[in-house]
Amino acid sequence: MELRQLKYFLAVADCGSLSRAAHEVFVAQSALSKQIGELEQELGVLLLHRSRTGVAMTEAGKIFYVYAQAILKQLGDVKAAVRSSPQHIVGAVVLAFPQSVSVEPTLPLPLIRAAREQLPGVSLHLNEELTGNMLERLRQGHIDLAIFSPVEGEPDMVFLPFVEEEFYLLRGTDPVAGLPDAGDVDLASVARHALIMPSQMHHHCTRGPLAAALERAGLPLKIASEINSVHILKAAVEAGMAPTVMPHALAAHEIAQGRMRAHRIRPERTSRILAVCHASHVPLTNAKKAVCDLVFDAARQLCAEGRWTGATYIGP
Q1: Do 104 and 243 reside in the same domain of the chain?
Q2: Is residue 286 one of the residues assigned to a domain?
Q3: Could you tell me the pTM of the whole model?
Q4: CATH number for the domain including 308?
Q5: Cβ distance 198 to 231 under 8 Å?
Q6: pLDDT tens for residues 244-285?
Q7: Most buried of 84, 143, 262, 290 (most Cβ within 10 A)?
Q8: Tens digit of each residue's pLDDT (9 = 90 or more) over 231-247
Q9: What is the pLDDT of residue 195?
Q10: How many CB atoms lie within 10 A of CB 190?
Q11: Contact at 8 Å (CB) between 148 and 161?
Q12: In whole angstroms, what is the distance from residue 135 CA to residue 154 CA?
């Protein structure tokens, strides 16, 4: 198997046509078709369905597409790594955020500004991801780093904790039976209400830590609805459909505008840990290490200045 075959296959899959792909990669269509055929012969499976109207990936082709992308991305990382030095850091880094961290006033925008100023040779790509997909995408090499809550039973993942972030009970402005108009609530009050939360598949950074805190207190987690979109979840909470438990930053704008109410959970302190996560089998280039440091610096500054409500810096 040759690297050019991977490039040719990705081009064909993306273009949906052998003729268009041949134009993209500057190769004769007959040579391109021959290379794809040899690749399929080596693998022992068909990767593409061919028809008069174009080509489409088979199920095996869809699987191969994922790995081919990851292999070529890591090859690009290798080239950048050997050309980079601590004094001249270059390369591309893909950093993934869960939806519950990707809103202002938390990390993304301060991180973009810092990267532009301090790492001009690094191309930083920020992805918003559902948490249920992130670890697998790290393993496959599609993303380099992720902001994630540490989880047990993942020996091929490295977690570098940097922030502890409190959870708040968030609700609409209409009165809710059993909840004060303002002020703190205890964990038992949280347990008495059915909540809008992400599904179990995407529970790692919000629902999981809350469920663990309730279990330690011998209390149940009641679910009113499962919504995996932060924007839809917030709209449902604001409409008074049910409360949720999330970080304050998730709804900072709505709270400031008087469209939502936020209650700290006291005397119990319910929180999550956020960490920079990377796959242990993929080397950290100078560019990736520099982005890790930027994350830590941005979080430290946000916490020190009080701009990340409910967050405490615990990193290096």
Answers
A1: no
A2: yes
A3: 0.77
A4: 3.40.190.10
A5: no
A6: 999 999 999 999 999 999 999 999 889 999 999 999 888 788
A7: 143
A8: 999 999 999 999 999 99
A9: 97
A10: 25
A11: no
A12: 9
Query: Both tokens of residue 266?
Result: 């006291």
Q: DSSP for 37-84?
A: HHHHHHHTS--EEEETTEEEE-HHHHHHHHHHHHHHHHHHHHHHHHH-
Same domain, 94 and 182: no
What tokens were used for 90? 């270059």
Q: Are residues 259 and 221 in the same domain?
A: yes
Smallest CA-to-CA distance from 288 within 163, 158, 99 is with: 158
Does 226 map to a domain? yes
Please check whether residues 138 and 230 belong to one and the same domain. no
How far apart are the C-alpha atoms of 247 and 45, rounded to whole Å? 47
Inform me whether the pLDDT recorded for 214 exceeds 90.
yes
CA angle 203, 204, 207 (to 5 degrees): 45
User: Range of 173's domain?
Assistant: 164-271
Whether residue 180 is found in the same domain as residue 308: no
Same domain, 174 and 262: yes
Q: Is residue 80 part of a domain?
A: no
How much is the mean pLDDT over the chain?
A: 90
Question: Tens digit of pLDDT for each residue in 64-116?
Answer: 888 888 788 778 777 776 776 666 788 889 999 998 887 666 788 999 999 99
Q: How far is CA 136 from CA 133, 154, 198, 210, 313, in A?
A: 6, 11, 19, 23, 27
User: Does residue 194 surpass a pLDDT of 80?
Assistant: yes
Share of the chain above pLDDT 90, in %: 60
Whether 56 is covered by a domain: the verdict is: yes
Predicted confidence at residue 78, as pLDDT, reads 75
In the block, tokens 């003729």 appear at 19
At 75 the pLDDT is 81
Per DSSP, the residues of 9-43 read HHHHHHHTSHHHHHHHHT--HHHHHHHHHHHHHHH
Identify whether residues 201 and 139 lie together within a single domain. no
Total domain count, the chain: 3
What pLDDT was estimated at residue 85?
A: 65
Helices (H), the chain: 3-15, 18-25, 29-43, 59-83, 108-118, 131-140, 187-191, 207-216, 230-238, 252-256, 286-304
